[in-house]
Amino acid sequence: PMPKRVLPKRQKGESARPRKANAALRRQLAARNRDLAESRKQKAAMAEILRVISSSPNDALPVFKTIVRSAVALCRCLFANVFVFDGEQLHYAASYSTGPDYERLLRAKYPMRPDTSQVSGRVLLSRSVVRLENVMADPEYDQRFPTAMGWNWRMLGVPMLRDGRPLGAVVVGWAQAGPIAKSQEELLKTFAEQAVIALENVRQFEEIQEKSRQLDLANTYKTRFLTAASHDLRQPLHALNLYVGQLHRASEPAERGRLVAQIDATLSAINELFNALLDMSKLEAGILESNPTEFPINQLLQRVETTFAESAREKGLRLRVVPSSAWTRSDFILLERILFNLVSNAVRYTSRRGVVVGCRRRRNTLRLEVWDSGPGIPSDLRQHVFDEFYRLATPESDAPSGLGLGLAIVERLCRLLDHSIELSSRVGHGSRFAVTIPQVAARARTADAAVLSGVLGDPAPGKVVVVIDDDALALDGMRGLLQSWACTVVSALTEREALARLAALGRAPDLIISDYRLADGKRGIEAIELLRGTLGAQVPAFLISGESDPERLRDVRASGFLLLHKPVPPMALRNALNRFLGTRNPSAKNVVGEAPPS
């Protein structure tokens, strides 16, 4: 018989080792499967949040609701909340699984300034993650909340940050006290980042909407401007054509004189329209700056009386200007523009009785008031009278037209000067406009500059004036007017032509006048600098232009040159001439050299 095979005895525990290894492998596999399943859930949740962000660019609330629902599911917590910070207060935005009692507490508590009674407040104050492992043991926490739920909580809050600036907080809570896993903190940070993306999307969407609104407003403004300007500029131009046609056929001196007066009045109306448009362009460009000085208010009131007495008399109105001994501190020129616009409107829309202009003292302030006995302004229209291009209907068929910019300019200038303006009116009785300005102590008057300038005599005769303009008709008109004032005029279409004619004349100029926009895209600023460089002297100079584009106005302002706006009234041109020719001209070469090569 075969011998029995004797097997060696197994060591104790050898049979248990494979079973333990298999169990460990099964546990590892199960943990890995759980992690994979958890990862898939998280990825699905993030994808869902991104989908909601994409479909709701103008509202973050749907995103917040998706975040709190996902947070409760993935963090296996009792509830989740989102709070938004507006820079001052925290606002309750969204929650999930909180229950009606808890939500009522939230709505009663928020909005609130960040403090330590809430996890959201602590997150905002620290701009960092906040952990509360036992809410009931924290004396600073508002205990109404865990009491309402009947559980001993642990809570986790993470900030919603953009460039380090807090936008809000995401807060979750569990029913039992205890430690909080790091993985849950990282997951909640991801949710907070998604909330920030949603808020940033809404902010960018609102910015785009606002820019679109501004663009639409600008297009509307441009359309209204073109419509109003086209109509209101055509009216006086049409009248001007008719008067010129009559002037050609008029032979009687009296008739010719009447037509010249009518042409002059029509040109004044055109100048007024252009000045209103220019004022609005300057205000839109932001290039107007106030230059406050102290002056007697009566100086301004006298200017009003001198300027408007005749136009009021022609309408059969009485213009009464009440003198005042008060002094103020403001920008004289801009305040004068405000008062002139108010008085001009009062005279324009009043057909009986008259207009009263005066000044009342009110403690440390003065009230410049313009009263009229016109038709009055209905209460439902008073909010519109300061809008651009808004004109009240007037029963007087012969009332002068305008662009409807006078009161819009008044309102903006008052804002610039920090002066308030009030309107009160009764239909059928008239209106009162009042501008409140500072009052200062009176002081001794200095010699009037106008009186001093009067004794200097006429500085224009014999002076050499260079005029550069690429428009031949404008150039001819300027040459004729300057020659009528006994100036020696060197007129040219370009700066190089001006240099050549100066060389032929053999004299240095006393003044340079250039149009802002010249041929081939050149600017008058460059033309003046070229002439000055060639002459070797800072010859006095100023610009004239028909430009009203804000960017061009800022360019001229930066250059430091005086700018006269076309159409330039002869008196404005003469005042500028007196201003520049009345000062000593810096030394220049007597004989001008050749123009530099092109």
Mean pLDDT: 80
DSSP E strands, number: 17
Radius of gyration: 40 Å
Strand order of the largest sheet: 2-1-5-4-3
Largest sheet: 5 strands, antiparallel
Shape: elongated
Alpha plus pi helix count: 16
In terms of DSSP E residues, the strand content is 15-25%
Secondary structural class: alpha/beta
Give the % helix.
40-55%
Distance between the termini: 130 Å
Ranges where pLDDT stays below 50 over 5 or more residues in a row are 396-400, 446-456, 584-598
Question: What would you say this structure looks like, in words?
Answer:
It is a single chain. With 598 residues, the chain is an alpha/beta fold. Helices cover 49% and strands 18% of the residues. The protein is built from 16 helices and 17 strands. It has helices spanning 16-55, 61-75, 100-109, 119-126, 144-149, 182-249, 253-285, 297-314, 332-349, 406-417, 449-454, 472-484, 495-505, 524-535, 550-559, 570-581, and strands spanning 79-85, 90-96, 130-132, 154-162, 165-174, 293-296, 318-321, 327-330, 354-362, 365-372, 420-426, 430-438, 464-468, 488-492, 511-515, 541-545, 562-565. The protein has a 5-stranded antiparallel sheet with strand order 2-1-5-4-3, with helices on both faces. It has a 5-stranded mixed sheet with strand order 7-9-10-12-11, with helices on one face. The chain has a 5-stranded parallel sheet with strand order 14-13-15-16-17, sandwiched between helices. A hairpin with a 3-residue loop joins strand 11 and strand 12. It starts with 15 loop residues before the first helix and ends in a 17-residue tail after the last helix.
